[in-house]
Amino acid sequence: ANGNDNKKFKGDRPPCSPSRVLHLRKIPSDVTEAEVISLGLPFGKVTNLLMLKGKSQAFLEMASEEAAVTMVNYYTPVTPHLRSQPVFIQYSNHRELKTDNLPNQARAQAALQAVSAVQSGSLALPGPPTNEGTILPGQSPVLRIIIENLFYPVTLEVLHQIFSKFGTVLKIITFTKNNQFQALLQYADPVNAHYAKMALDGQNIYNACCTLRIDFSKLTS
Predict the structure, then answer these.
(1) I want to staple 83 with a disulfide (CB 3.0 to 4.6 A). Which of 25, 27, 28, 170 is the partner?
(2) Which phi-psi region, left, alpha or beta, contains residue 35 (left: φ > 0; alpha: ψ -120 to 50)?
């Protein structure tokens, strides 16, 4: 980097006053927009993103200052990692991001839209069916979920958000097997598992990608 960048970060400069725009430093060069957005997701809606890959920096705008403050407070003692590289987060001097006319913003906007679709629950999910008679006795409350076309990272938060629409989710484990991203998800009640499988099997989490393939697991817990 040229010398100016280094001066800015030398020493412990006084932290800026809270802003809903967060400045992320030392992000890996190959990181995706969706991965950066996923840092902010657990804390609230992410409303804008600006990636400065040449400087290994990004700006993330949250919907509210409260969400940004919660995020900074959470990540101050626990340094977040992207692709196993530590990332540094602080408040930005900017109050909001104006990115309308910048190049390369289309990808960031597409990633934001995909993520907000999950957050607002605007996935086209049917409600639980009414016919109760189809539940098989002894059916497992555990679903095995395979996610195909994994174009965006699917986090535990995202899975929990989608599946908890159908009942209380007790546990989720994610793992990769045979080069496929999979999850085991346990409901409190097998009826919830049944509804979730009927409603979600074959659905996409994001537009045209991250397709859910759902079966009942042989495990009961």
Answers:
(1) 28
(2) alpha
